Amino acid sequence: AQSVTQLGSHVSVSEGALVLLRCNYSSSVPPYLFWYVQYPNQGLQLLLKYTSAATLVKGINGFEAEFKKSETSFHLTKPSAHMSDAAEYFCAVSEDNQGGKLIFGQGTELSVKP
Amino acid sequence: KAGVTQTPRYLIKTRGQQVTLSCSPISGHRSVSWYQQTPGQGLQFLFEYFSETQRNKGNFPGRFSGRQFSNSRSEMNVSTLELGDSALYLCASSSGTGKETQYFGPGTRLLVL
After folding, report:
1. CA–CA separation, A109 and A45 (whole Å)
2. CA B85 to CA B19: how far, in whole Å?
3. Chain A residues contacting B, CB < 8 Å?
4. What is the mean pLDDT of residues B8-21?
5. Nearest to A102 among B102, B105, B107 (CB)
6. What whole-number distance in Å separates Cα of residue A12 and Cα of residue B113?
7. What is the pLDDT of residues A14-47, one digit of tens each?
8. Do A96 and B102 touch (CB under 8 A)?
């Protein structure tokens, strides 16, 4: 069965510092992996996705993630945090035979200190 | 292209009532998935409809049901509401394959009193 674990429900960084949000997945078949961001009182917006092409995936707003099969990880990074990055981030997994079904991690709330 | 729209945006109901939420997908998308978001349980998959047929179902009681129309618009219904059904209900649309991006609507916030 698929599952996603996000390590750390809250992460706080200073403006300009590196952002690292951790995601580990479990899947019996090659997975598709996604990172979404949610701002207060809004829906989810896709940051980036891995669909078995390049293992280093670049997304919007300067975010990127690297798929590491040996570690079953898909951590999200950004070299320099901006105040506007403060939001909740969700990692999700889907599989080919599951159509439009996403399994989400519990989310990581990112705070950015000035 | 217009994004995913959900109506209503906010809803207050009392225990025992039923509620119907609506979702209009992005034009051309045939898959609509529904998710429940709560502080305690996070984002949980309810069900997915594809070409008017339920294709996937999450682990929710039968009080939660849905349907999809020929124009791909979808509705979900919750009968006999319980306090614990208070949540943000999100729908997402996609072309229907696992690797395609799901585009989310703004959600319907349901409060059950």
Report:
1. 15
2. 11
3. 32, 34, 36, 42-46, 49, 51-52, 90, 92, 94-107
4. 98
5. B102
6. 35
7. 999 999 999 999 987 788 999 999 998 889 999 9
8. no
